[in-house]
Every structure is written in structure tokens, then in C-alpha cells.
Amino acid sequence: MNYNYLNFFQIQFVEDKQEFSRFPTKTGRRSLSRSISQSSTDSYGSAASYTDSSDDETSPRDKTQLNSKGTSDFCVKNIKQAEFGRREIEIAEQDMSALISLRKRAQGEKPLAGAKIVGCTHITAQTAVLIETLVALGAQCRWTACNIYSTQNEVAAALSEIGVAVFAWKGESEDDFWWCIDKCVNMEGWQPNMILDDGGDLTHWVYKKYPNVFKKIRGIVEESVTGVHRLYQLSKAGKLCVPAMNVNDSVTKQKFDNLYCCRESILDGLKRTTDVMFGGKQVVVCGYGEVGKGCTAALKAMGSIVYVTEIDPICALQACMDGFRVVKLNEVIRQVDVIITCTGNKNVVTRDQLDRMKNGSIVCNMGHSNTEIDVASLRTPELTWERVRSQVDHVIWPDGKRVILLAEGRLLNLSCSTVPTFVLSITATTQALALIELYNAPEGRYKQDVYLLPKKMDEYVASLHLPTFDAHLTELSDEQAKYLGLNKNGPFKPNYYRYKHASKIP
Amino acid sequence: MNYNYLNFFQIQFVEDKQEFSRFPTKTGRRSLSRSISQSSTDSYGSAASYTDSSDDETSPRDKTQLNSKGTSDFCVKNIKQAEFGRREIEIAEQDMSALISLRKRAQGEKPLAGAKIVGCTHITAQTAVLIETLVALGAQCRWTACNIYSTQNEVAAALSEIGVAVFAWKGESEDDFWWCIDKCVNMEGWQPNMILDDGGDLTHWVYKKYPNVFKKIRGIVEESVTGVHRLYQLSKAGKLCVPAMNVNDSVTKQKFDNLYCCRESILDGLKRTTDVMFGGKQVVVCGYGEVGKGCTAALKAMGSIVYVTEIDPICALQACMDGFRVVKLNEVIRQVDVIITCTGNKNVVTRDQLDRMKNGSIVCNMGHSNTEIDVASLRTPELTWERVRSQVDHVIWPDGKRVILLAEGRLLNLSCSTVPTFVLSITATTQALALIELYNAPEGRYKQDVYLLPKKMDEYVASLHLPTFDAHLTELSDEQAKYLGLNKNGPFKPNYYRYKHASKIP
Amino acid sequence: MNYNYLNFFQIQFVEDKQEFSRFPTKTGRRSLSRSISQSSTDSYGSAASYTDSSDDETSPRDKTQLNSKGTSDFCVKNIKQAEFGRREIEIAEQDMSALISLRKRAQGEKPLAGAKIVGCTHITAQTAVLIETLVALGAQCRWTACNIYSTQNEVAAALSEIGVAVFAWKGESEDDFWWCIDKCVNMEGWQPNMILDDGGDLTHWVYKKYPNVFKKIRGIVEESVTGVHRLYQLSKAGKLCVPAMNVNDSVTKQKFDNLYCCRESILDGLKRTTDVMFGGKQVVVCGYGEVGKGCTAALKAMGSIVYVTEIDPICALQACMDGFRVVKLNEVIRQVDVIITCTGNKNVVTRDQLDRMKNGSIVCNMGHSNTEIDVASLRTPELTWERVRSQVDHVIWPDGKRVILLAEGRLLNLSCSTVPTFVLSITATTQALALIELYNAPEGRYKQDVYLLPKKMDEYVASLHLPTFDAHLTELSDEQAKYLGLNKNGPFKPNYYRYKHASKIP
Amino acid sequence: MNYNYLNFFQIQFVEDKQEFSRFPTKTGRRSLSRSISQSSTDSYGSAASYTDSSDDETSPRDKTQLNSKGTSDFCVKNIKQAEFGRREIEIAEQDMSALISLRKRAQGEKPLAGAKIVGCTHITAQTAVLIETLVALGAQCRWTACNIYSTQNEVAAALSEIGVAVFAWKGESEDDFWWCIDKCVNMEGWQPNMILDDGGDLTHWVYKKYPNVFKKIRGIVEESVTGVHRLYQLSKAGKLCVPAMNVNDSVTKQKFDNLYCCRESILDGLKRTTDVMFGGKQVVVCGYGEVGKGCTAALKAMGSIVYVTEIDPICALQACMDGFRVVKLNEVIRQVDVIITCTGNKNVVTRDQLDRMKNGSIVCNMGHSNTEIDVASLRTPELTWERVRSQVDHVIWPDGKRVILLAEGRLLNLSCSTVPTFVLSITATTQALALIELYNAPEGRYKQDVYLLPKKMDEYVASLHLPTFDAHLTELSDEQAKYLGLNKNGPFKPNYYRYKHASKIP
Lengths: 506, 506, 506, 506
Hints:
19 helices, eight-stranded mixed sheet, homotetramer, alpha/beta, 2 domains, Rossmann fold, seven-stranded parallel sheet, 13% strand
């Protein structure tokens, strides 16, 4: 879910600079965003919602803690919170039955026996279910956080208690962040052979600091847009000497992250921040990709009148057929109650347009970055900003007009809503399968490149989640499989079928 | 729209036999289906609905007719119907403004000047708008029908009246069919350089009978699944010596033919045949591809309770998220009121299942062929068939139970509904653009192979249809185009982006 | 379903004239509409769709026919069609299980033993199921048609064959119409004690011609708006000397006739007449009552962009909350593709507005009468009318613009769609229950007035239809019934609760 | 919005006891619920969400405060918060344009000049807009809170600052509650002539303590179900000596409170408490009244699979036609993920059923009282309750199964969601109009009874809210009004039309 790009290792990677310059740097409030990845410092509200705001001010690095088995190979806020963390993990397990099911199916054969995995992800109850699955399948794991704010301290404690070497706490400094990563990788007598990363910070640390270790890695599994982008950069530069799996773009994850998840989070995000009634509201959704399709469907169903803006005529025609007026933003800017951006573009809503909005109208962003609304243009002396709730600013014009800006133009679904456990389950299951695949793949199946999850495994992830819905798959008869030219066990949408003639397009 | 396969040239193409054997042969009622394409003999109800059933029994081949300009290079039922046909064409023009718009935009430069096109399509008012557009853009055209039943005689007359050489009438014999094709191609002093085909009969006639002509063709544009399949066969066999354009699989056409068109035609087809009330009915839709998604969405909206069967876990998970129970057919067979098949598979509904259906339940097919319901299994002595309306059979069990079978298991949307002019407009515009592209492409852009329409042209077809909906596209600013790395005029979804890593899937 | 008013007995009922003058007289094509009810001469397409167009020109009145039992107390087109009619009835029975269920439940006690019912309704397979139910419950029946076009001759034959005295055929003259009614009522040695009417013609015939018979009637059950209106007129004039039941306004029937039925028939009616694609079309629906709610919901679901016009602010606010722009017709008249009227008002669409509509736009009426579109204003010399299909006229302006007028402004759902058997089943069941109630009610329960069906019986009609949907009612426990102050068997929405304070509104 | 009943003045009103016994007493946690109304002590989360939790522990009764004009006729937490409260009121005004519009229209004529209104409502920014409207229309107001928790202290301060005599603060004791009411009524030289009440506590205080004042009241406007019930009790007992207006049952308010409001709050309430993903979830909604219709529509739109239980066959048939399976709860209890009760009944979900629910399933109530789920049955020793968030309890069975109970079975929409300002605006506008009507009604229009808002005023409330949606009403022409028999300015749905035959139902 790390959509934002980051300015990682700016000094080292000067050759990448121009490429990176497409992605605007978030500046201002946090000076440390200059040197570590932006995603690692994004506020990440929901996952940590149960977490205590402990008053103990001592840095975990300065404490010596032992778990009940007497070991100390971890560094967390307070090992005594383990029991509370265990409860959180157990509750999460209830909604991640796919992972539990995978754990049970593969436990006998221990497909990860011998795997030494270093991981760098958000450390939450859901991730803990993943980590404990990896352990159950035979892996040894050392783990750190990909974000300095998102760690659930009690979960980190619970993992440390059962012997996973976790180095993470909520509220790390930049120095802490790299120290924790290093502690994961740099251990005498133990050398990782797999990497599970979310954002690319761990991968680059190993690549830069421990090139000899890096060369012996059997596979990297990367979860985020950012990290995947970095891997392609490395690959393009001929420096990626290990196979990597891009799990961010797996079909299942994409569908759930975008269409289905946004369909719900647009309503949730708007409601939690503004209590707006949807019925009768006029809303313009900029962009009719998967995210826009999800947002418009939800709002239409709730009785809003929805307009769409698009640059692509095919998407525009889809919007027409789905019952939306396709307009230019300027045509409706004076009448709409809500603007939602989902384009991935920049300056989709300009100051000039914000000037013309109605009093009380709402502006927010569901797209891939915080560039879509020109928020910077609102930081001028004649406008007053009033923070009325967390994530809610009233920007007040000299004539008293208020425009309600949510999450300062950052992603509404990340800032003001929650990611359903079900979506996290799909991600975690995909990560586990990718690790198993890379670790067990026969020599030569994967080269030094970035791969998508094989379609069949994508289908397997989906199938593991069907029991949640008590959904029953139909099985092909031999005769039918032959008729369709398919293997009875899939993949059912063969790659060749779909992309068959693609290379012929001039 | 020719989904059914055909047993074309069975004798000549013995080498293709095994490939073709996947597609079952329709037998029985029409012996001529042995030797010409099945699609060319399919009943094709809607388009010809206005057509008279003239009493003149004389074969057009035996008549000499002159149009008002005194020429006789055509063969139609009755040239005197031209005026009536002209009115039909004018009415069709009203709903095909995209084509008219293309006509106007390209008329000055005559991009088809010098093109000599032979065409073989349904001859309807909509096709006439296409043909007259080609003429307006500079082409010379000779035309014949791809189906022996579908010709609107008065439209053929109207085209002949303005000088297009049309050879077609409603109710041709098999011999007539080939005679007409031959008359189009074989004309002294005139040699075609472009082919527009729908089903592949014309292409194969030229390929077989006039190999020298075939070699000089600059391009073939093929509309149907069947014809495209034949072209790929030829290509695979190394015998396709000209570039061909597969317009059947263009994005725009696919979306409209499947999702949007089926969303409406499932309701229309069921209503016209059975007058069934949708509200409260329990329906099972087999297959959750684009067609299944369209059918389920429409029925859910009308108050039916819809179940889905699927073999592919990814599609099954989509069905779950869209609010449908995913079941095996046997779980619900005793309770459902309607079964709709959309799988492309065979024997999806078996005799055993039909035996267990409720009295008064309806069975129909929206998929790609008439194999989905095992209709043959119902032709046993203990079952009575009662034809209660056109396309509606009651199959009656010994205990009096009736199952209502629509269109004998053939495609409901073709047999019992109509194809909206808007969809025909998209197809015709795509065909016209494909002809222009192939005719004008610089040397080397296209090899001797089958191509998809370039994405940008797909987008152009879409953009030509936006004015119908008064839809206004947003244009990228220079800055935004640069930010996104796109050309301001598209294509907006670059091919590389989408298919980038496809070849890496092991 | 007889929404249109009629000019019945204009000479006799001069005292009613002013009241009646609200309802415009349809003139023109049929001179007989002056003297019999308009509804009795409305074209009534669907129900008779299976009926043969027999070539036998002899009037049934001039033939002597015997059924197989040797009796001749009937007058139908051709008694030999009885077998075919029986099949139609059997098919109808399959969709009218509620009536069959009622037949079974009440058959033992014969609640209509001694009832002598004269009926005047459409004579269709569905009505036959009703009539045979009445007979099964003990009644003697004599029957005639309420419409000169709607009789299914073979059904009339089948009823006559089993001994029901039917006097009706398709294509009666006005004189035939009254002759048939009289034959039903005026039979030596047999005097009716119950009336089942649809339109009021039978009731008024008895009232006028046989006042002594009329006084001894135990109850009248009236189905149509028209007939109910007439009964209230009689009641107001103090001339209604028997209790009458208004089954037109029963809750169940109203809901099904309007919201649920129109939701489907708007799509069906538009599709059958124009093959229009709904997706992306801009539609304005005039009136947001139950009919308007059904139409807008269906079109929105199919991807149309729907506007609403309203005069009532409460309904307008509902439209807003349901996601529709509420506009004045003039605001959108130039841009919409379809206008649908559902107001019950007159001149909702004026010539001035029709002048401003787009080329190719469609105008139709789903409201209560043919007054909503000012069709008369289109019959001027400068406009050309072109009948392109049954029920479809192109009205052509001097500049070539075409407006597509459906059913000449009459009810689209009656003229161009069908009434689902399920709705007819609800009506028929309600009629049967009303007859049972009136016939068995204790002295004094009903006075000489017009009554609604008791709520409990309305609920009973609904409950009889639940098995069709395999719907299972929850039953109140004794404790719950006590808590809610309800009888466990209903009625569940007590009248007092709903209407309690109504009389207090000043 | 006060649905819960209360045991008010149990000692005094012994004669009402049997009637009241239908409504179960909430016992336990709050002993004071014995003597003041239950609604007055309900937690009321949303409205007070901005309110500070000030640390000043001094009781307002013990402080002397002066506003800036030097007066002290009020008692609030802290008059210095007035400025902050003013901002809250100004923000609320933006969403209550109907009230502002009413203020402007009626300000010139001062229709409430001379009115002396005592009010007892929630004291929030929205109520403040109402109160200031009443003042602007000429009234003098004294105000107190109807709930001991819901007062926004800063709003109370802002009102006091401009001279409204407010006696209320957040966190009153029972004694404070009555003291505040008394201070409003009992002021030397000032005697109220109008009452605006929400819950009936104020009304009964005046009735009991100041019978002479009560007799001179010109009208009571009551907002809550509870208060309305009490008024009918008084009326039935012949003790209501003044006219009262029941604004709870106005058409507009009912529609918004139930269907439209619940459609949104069910999603909001579930999401805020559980972060559940709706897609694919199986949900059973008990009761298909307006609330149930709203809940099911929303969940269906979000991709849930929804079942309905009903006792009333008419509602059950509606559910069928709307596309829901109608089941008994026991049929689906083992498979559903969520149960939502909306029946108004008791013990709709029993312990026995809770025992059979799935691990992780959610139970909540959207109905009229906290009786629907048998929560008491869950308070047994073998079950463990775990409070995981505010309003969220995990009830844990001995085998580890968790059922998630929301708001302890109280109203989810009040406890865990917010009431949109728009709905509050409708309520407040209705209250203002009711006060104007009662205060200005000519002698004799209203007797000593309980009245509904006249239909025309209901329509007026609706019309005042249309501009919010930029909705444009169509106006009847003279000719149309005559045709329909309506006044051009409404009412448009005449009372006589709707309720015409009601009294005839036996």
C-alpha cells in the first residue's frame, strides 16, 4: 500500500535522479524525509489504533530485555506487552484463514526449511500472522519495520517472546530505523538467503552494505510500488543479480486494493472525517480507472449524483455506459459538493478551480500520490487554514467561504479509513507463496530479473480465500478440460490467450 | 457477432480438421451447412425485421434490372425498393453519427482513394452506412452477403441504385451464396486490393480461387471470431501472405459486445420470449466472465436473486465481492427459476441436471456457442417438445413438468434480442479505420500476419462515439503529459505499461 | 389495469357530466367509443398474443354450438378450440400457484356454495384459472368480456366446454358487447347474487336494466380505476344499494402494478419498440410517484442518466436522495434522448417542448392516461407522421428531425409490454378473496358502500404468493405478539396505527 | 431520535403503568434511570464530539458568571467558551440553509412576536441555529437540555452570550437536570406560552409543578417518540388541556430518519466499530420496514449477500421483489457474518441463536429499542466479555468462539454513527414551523389534542431543503391544477385522497 515514492539514498543514486524527479518530494514537516524513504515516514493511522501511547521514554536501544525463554536477540519497546500482543495476533488470525489454511497445508513438507528470511514490513498483528506462518513452514526470520510510526509495540513483543528476532518500535528516529535494519542483516553466524521487503529500504541496505550477502540471496519478494520501481531501476542498470518477485501487481491484490477496497473506503473516509450525507450530493470523480470505478459505484449506490472527468476516451465511454455524465471539471466546479481525485496525475484540481468551489464543499484524493490536488497553492496569506479535526482542514477564503480539505491531499483511504484485514490477508498469502516459489524453484526458472507471480499461484491465492465466503468452485470434467484445452487445476486464463497478439501491436 | 464456428471447406482443409473438431457441427435441419460456413446460414432475426416477405418467386439471378442511372452491375431482389431502403439508411445514419463524423473529417483527403474493396458482411441499413462512408472516402466497393438470410432487400436495392455493386438477397441458396461472392471478386478490368470480411468465406474464396489476386491484396479486415480463427490457422500454416487486421478483439468492441450489450440483451431476450417477471426469481448464471458479469448485474438490479458458478478462483472471488453466492450448479438446480450459461464450455447443463429442474423453469445460453446446454440429450422419446412461440420450446417430462428452452440452446442475445445500432456503429467505425490504416500504412509497418487494431485507433473509435453522449474529454496540459510520460493525444494506456512483465511469467 | 376513463352511458348519466368532464374523451378512430366504455375498446395486445386470427367470418351469435356434454348455454367463436384453450389454461396454472393453493385450501368447505356470480373481465387463460377456482369453491358462474378485443377465443371455448356459460369472442361489435352482457344476466330461472366487474359496464347494465336483480346482489367486486370511480359516483349519489369491494386499491396489487411491474415494463416496452440501448442515454422521467420510482430505478440500473421533474416537494426530495437531479423539463429538453411521463397530469409534454427535442429522441407515457403528452398538437400539416412499426410513429419536422412517439401517447406498459402472470395472479387471488368475504360476511359488516379489502386479507393474498419465491415467514412467539400488541396471525400493520391521527389534520 | 422509552415519574403516573409495561425498563448501570427519562441519560456520542473535556470540576451551579453584556440569567459550564461556540454555530449554519432561509422569509413579519418559548432539547450547534431562528422571528427563549450528556458546553456559552437563558452543561447529575428545567420555567415576571420538548420531561414538569402555567400554554411541540407517546397518554386520560403537535411523525422527518439516514448509518456504524469489509459478507437483516429497506439496500450495493426475515407477508413479498431471500433466522444463523435487527420487537435474536453463530460474526441493532437482541442472556458466567473498543464487545464462548456485539445491543446508528446535519435541519425546520403554526392558528383550529403537522407544512419543509440540492420544482399551470383538482401551491397529495376509505375498513 506504499504508493508514494521516496527519495532514498539520494546521494548514492545520483544516476537515478532524473527518473526520480518525476515523483515530487514531500517536504516541510519532516526533515528526515530527505534521507530515508518517504513511505517509511508516512503517517499510518489505522493499523496502530490499538497501540498504547506508553509513557516510558527510554529508547529501546538503551534497554536490555529478556523474553521468557531467556533470550535477548530482539529490540522492542516492552517485552512485557507480549501477552496483549498475542491476543491481537489471535484476533487477526480469525480473519486470515487463508494464511492459516496455507500454514496447515504446507506444514508437513516444510517448504521453507533452511530459508533464512530477513523482512522489513509494517509490524502489525496481520504481519505477525504472516511471520509465524513462515516460521511454521520451516523458515528462520529476522524482522524490522518499514515505517517508523506503524509498529504495534505489543505485537513486536509477542513475536520476540516466541523467538522471532524483531527490531522495531513505534516512533523510531531515522538513525534507529537504519540501526534496526542493520541488526536484522548483520548477525554473526547467520546469513540471510531470502528478502521480504516493503518499500525497498532493506533491499538497498543489503545491496549497498553487504554486497556479498546480496549476491547469495535466492530471491527478493517486494510488496510496494516504490520498491518494485527501485527493483526495475536496478534491473535496468544491470545491477540486479538475484531474481525478484513483484507481488504488488498480482491480479488478486490489484483488484482488491483498487476496485473493491476503494469502493468501501471512499465512503468510510468521507464519513469519518466529515459526517457528510451522501444522498443527493453532487460529486465529481476525476479519473475512471479501477479506483474511480470503485468510488463512483459506491457513491451512486448511496444516492449521490456523480460526474466523471477523463482523458482517455475508452474509459470515458465506459463511464457513459455506466451511467455517468463525462464532463470537464470546469463545467461542474461551481455546483459540486465533493471532488475526488483518482488519476495518478498532478494538479488535477488547481487553485483557480478551488477558488470557484462552493462554500462547504469537500476536496479529497484517492489516487496514487499527493500531487493531484494543488495543495501548495492554498498556502497563501489571504487564505486561513483551520484544523477542525484530525485530517480535516477548513481552508477559508476572505469572503468566508470554506473548502474542506481532507488529509492535506494525501491518500484518503490510507489516512482516514482502514485497510480491511481481508485485503491484508491476500497480500500476506501472496508474499508467503512468492517466498515459497522463489526458494523452491528449480535452477533456471528465474533469472536475475523482476517477475510477476505466476498466474497459477495468483489463482491459488484466490482459491485459499474462497472458503471465507463459503464459495464453492466448479471443477472441470476431463471432457470439458479437453474441450477448452485447459489443465483441470488451472491456470484457467492462460497467459498466451490474453496477451497472444500483444507484441503485434505496432 | 458470428460466435458460432463453421465447417468451412471441410474437404479442402483436411489439415485443419483436428483443430476444428473442437467445435461441434450443427447438423440436422440444413444439409447445406456441410459445405458453407455455419454463420452464413444462422437465422438472424432482428436486422431483417422490417423486410418485406415479397411474393415474387423469381430468382434475382434470372432477372435483368437497371438502376435509374441505367447500369446493371448488381443483383438484388428488386431495384424498385431502393427508395424504401434509402429511408432505412437515413434512419440508421441518425444513430451512427460516429461514422458520419468520420466521413466528414476524412472526406477531404480521400484516404481510400484508389482502394478497391470487396466486402462480405450482413447487408443491412447499418452496413450501408459503412459502405457509403467508404465510398465517400474514395473507395470503389463491390459487396455481397455473409449470411443467406440476413439481407435487407430494400437496402441492397438502395445501394445498387447509387452504383455500389451489390450481389445479395434474402433467402439465397448455397449455390447463390458462392455465385454472389464470385460476382464480387471476378470482374473484368477490376481487381480488388482490400478485403472486408465477416466470417472468412470471402477471404477463403479469393485465397482458393484467385491466388494471384490474393497475393496483391494490401490488407484484410476481419470482423468475426470465426474468420479471425481461420486467419490464425492460415498464418500458423505459413499461408497468409497479406497483413490482416482482427477487429473483433478491439477493446472497444469487446467491451460493448460483451459487458454492456449483454447487460441489456439478457433482459430483453428473456422478456420477449417468456414475459417472465424478474423480481424475486432465483437465477443461476454459469460463468463470471464479461458476459456473466453483464447478465448478473442486470438481473440483480431487476430484483432477481442470482447465483454464480465458476471454475476460475479469481473470477469466483470477484463474484463474491460483487455480492453473489458462488455455488456448484447441483447445489441450486432444484430451486432456481432460470439457468443462464455464459462459459464458452460444453455440457455445462446436463440432462441429469435438467431432469432435476423445477416445473416452469427456463434454460438459455448467452455464451459463445450452442454447446453449453446439452440440448441433444433432451431429444429422447420420453420427452415431448412443444413449440409455444418462435424460439421457445416447452420440453415436457412424463410427469408433466415443463422446462422452457430458449432458442434451442443457441445464443439468446442473437436469436431473441437485437444488437443495438450503437454497437453496430462501433464495429463499423472500427472496420473503416482498419481499412484506412492498412491501406495507408507505410511499407513495413505490417507484415504477413494478423494484427490487433493499434491502441490509439481504438481510442479514436471511442472518441468518435463520445458526442453521442455529450461527453467531454479532459485534455492533458503539457506539464501533465510530461509528468505522466504520455503524448497529449494518446494512446493513454500505453501497451508497454500493461504488458510489460508478461513475458517474464514462467 | 383499466387506467383510462370512459364515457359510459353519457346520455343516462347526465348528472355525472361535470365530474366526468375531467377525463378527456378519446375521439376519432372509433365511433363506438361514444357509447360503450373506452376501456372496453382499448387495444390489448399481449394477452391475446397466442390467439389465432381465424378466418371464419360467421358471427358466433348466428351459430349453434354444443359442447361435448351436449349443452349450448354459451356463445363463443369455436367450441372446437377447447382443447387448445385447455392447454393454455394449464400453462397459466403453473404461474398462478397462489390461486391453485387457495382452491385447495378452501375446496372442502365450499365457501362459495350457493353463489351465483356474473363476471365481466378480460377472458384470458389467467382469468380462466380464476373462474375455475370460483367454480371449485362452489359458485355457479356466467361470464362475459369487458373488452371487445381481448378475448382469447380458445380459452372461452375451453371454459364453455366444462360448462361455464361464457358469452364472448375476440372482435365483438358494440351491439355484441351488450348482447353478451345481457345473456349473462338475463337467464330464466337463474338470478345472480354476486358481481365481479372490471370497468363497471356489467354493474351499470344490471343497475339500469334489472334494478330488482341489483337490489338482491350480496356484493360487487370491482377491479378497475374506472369501475371504482363509477361506484363512488353511485355511492355519492345515494344509489349504491349493495356493498362493493374496491380491489384495485389493495396494497399488494398497487405495489405490484406500479413500482415492481413498471420497473420491468419500462425497459421491455422501450426495447421492443425501439431497440434503444439504455447505457449512457439521458432520460427525463416526469413524475416521481410509484411508477416514476420504478422507471427511474430500472433505467439508472441499466446505465442511463436520469433526470426527474416533480411538482410535489416531498417527492422531489426523495428523488434527490435517490440520486436524481430534479429539474424543470425545459432545462433538459434539448439534451435528453428519452422522455417518459408518469404524472397522471395533462399536457406535461407540450408541442413547444416537442419542437425543441433532439433528432431521434423518444417520447412515451407510463402514466394513468393518454393526456400527458400533447399528442393532438403534433397532428398539424407541417409535421409528417410515419408509422415504422406497430406502436411506433416517427413524427418528422420540416427540417428532417424525427421524434419517436410510442403508442401514440397511450400507456406504454399496456400497449408495448406485457403484464406478468404473477401480477395477474395477485389480482385474481384478491378478486376471489373479495368475493368470498362479501358472500360470507355476517349481516352488518358491510353497508351500502365501497370498501377496501380488509388488511388481513391483503396480507393473506401476499402470503399465498410467498411459496412462489420459496420465502419463509417468521412467526411471532406469544411473548412477542403480546409485546407488540398484535395477533399472531396478523394483521401486522394495524389500520389504527397508520391512520390514527389523520382525521386530526386540519 | 429518542426511540428508547423511559420510566418517567413512575410514582406519579401509576394509572399509566399497564400501558407502559409494554416497554421494557432498562435497568442496571444507572440507578437514576428510575426517576428521569431514559432518553435523557442515553449516551449520545456524535453531537458532542468536538466538546472539550474541561478539567474545571466546579459545578456550574456554584459559579457566578456574567456574559459580556453583564447579565447572568443563564447557567453554563464556562461563558468564556462563547467564541469557540459561535464558530461551531456558524459552521452548522452552512448546512442548515433551510432554517436560515426560513429566518429570512419570516423575519419581517416576526410571526413569533410575543411568544415565550421554553425549550428542552439536545443543546448542540444545530439546536442553536434553531433557537436563534426563533429569536429572530420574535420569540423570547429559555432553554435546557433533554439529555445529561449531550450538551456542547461552548454552544451553550455562545447562546448565553447573546442573551438566551440557557441552563445546561455536559455531565449534569439527575438533580442538576431537574434544577435546570425548573430554572427555565420558574422565573419571576416571565411566563412561558409555548413549549418545545424532546422526550416529554419539560412538559411533564410544567404539567405537574405549574398546572396554572400549563393551562395557559398555547401549544406544545414534541419531537420524540417517547414524548409523543406520553402526550397521547395524557390525551387519552383527558388531561391534555392544550393542543400539541407531533413532529416526530411528519412525513419528511420519517423518511429521512429511517430510510435515507439508515442507508448510510448502517455502513458507517459497522465500519467505524469493526472495519469489516462488506463485499461478499453474508448478512441477515431482521425486519423489512423502512429501516430494514435502507440497511439492505446499502449492504446489497456494497456487495454483501443479504437475507431478510419478516413476520408480515406484504413486507416479505416486497423483500422478494427487491431481490432478497426471505428466510427464518434459524435457516441462516450458522452461515451469516452479520445480524442486524430492525424490527421494533423483542428477543428477535435469542441466546440459543447466538450460541450457533459463527466465530467472528457481528451482531447489532438498528431498530427502535435495545430489546431486539437478548443481550441479557449473554451475561452468564461461562461467557467472557472483552471490550476491544468503545462500543465493541467480544463475547467469547468457552470454545474460543467470539461474537462481536456492538453498542451492547443499543441503537447502532445513534451510538456508533452520526446523525447528518441535513436530517437535523429537517427536524429543526419542522419544529420551527410547528411553533409558528400553533402560535398563530386561529381560535378553534386546534383543540386539546395531539396533531400531525399539516401536510402543506410538511411539503413546505421539504421545499425549503430543495435548494441544497439545486433541485427545481415544476409548477402546475392553472389548467393542470384544475385538471388535477389541486391548489397550485399544494398540498399535492391531499389527505382525503390517501386516507379516503380508511374508515371503511371493517
